Amino acid sequence: MIIKPSAFIEIDSYQYKNTYLKLCPSKKGKKQEDVIFKTMGDLFVYSCVLGFLIDKTIEIDKTESVIRWQVITPESQARLIALAVSKKGNIDCLKEPDKLKLELEIRSNGGMHIINDKIVNEDIDYNSFEGLMAELLSRIK
């Protein structure tokens, strides 16, 4: 295990209030049946992958600690770590779990800004994950 399972994933406070609570179920937000992403961890994974795909990182100003690393499935953890290793071009990032976690957090924040700008702020009507992804991908090309 590279990143401690109990470690909190730091997410940007603005993104938490304006994106996570709109696209994920929560006590303060929407119900499970009214959202595309079933967990905040799922949205973190997607936004992180998007951040890697478009090579976008954004530092996090003010953070919220609402997701633990352990809620990310082992398969998704492995994929995110593989993306980080691939981006760095070596396995050195595996030796420093805190720096690896930070890299994933700022990649996710980069992807989250795209999601927020292209989807949430424009209040696009979407009914499925596939529809959301198709709309998002068409807007970032």
Give a verbal description of the structure.
This protein is mainly α and 141 residues long. It has one domain. Helices cover 54% and strands 8% of the residues.
Helix-strand layout with pairing:
Layout lengths: L7 E5 H11 L16 H14 L9 E6 L5 H15 L8 H24 L8 H12 L1
Antiparallel strand pairs: 1-2
Number of helices: 5
Q: What are the secondary-structure elements, in order, as H or E?
A: EHHEHHH
For the secondary structure, the number of strands is 2
Mean pLDDT: 86
Rg value: 14 Å
Distance between the termini: 36 Å
Would you tell me the structural class of the helices and strands? mainly alpha
Total number of distinct structural domains: 1
Helix content: 40-55%
Task: Report the β-strand fraction as a percent range.
Answer: 5-15%
What does the overall shape look like? globular
Tell me the strand order in the biggest sheet: 1-2
Main β-sheet: number of strands, strand sense, barrel status? 2 strands, antiparallel
- The low-pLDDT segments are none
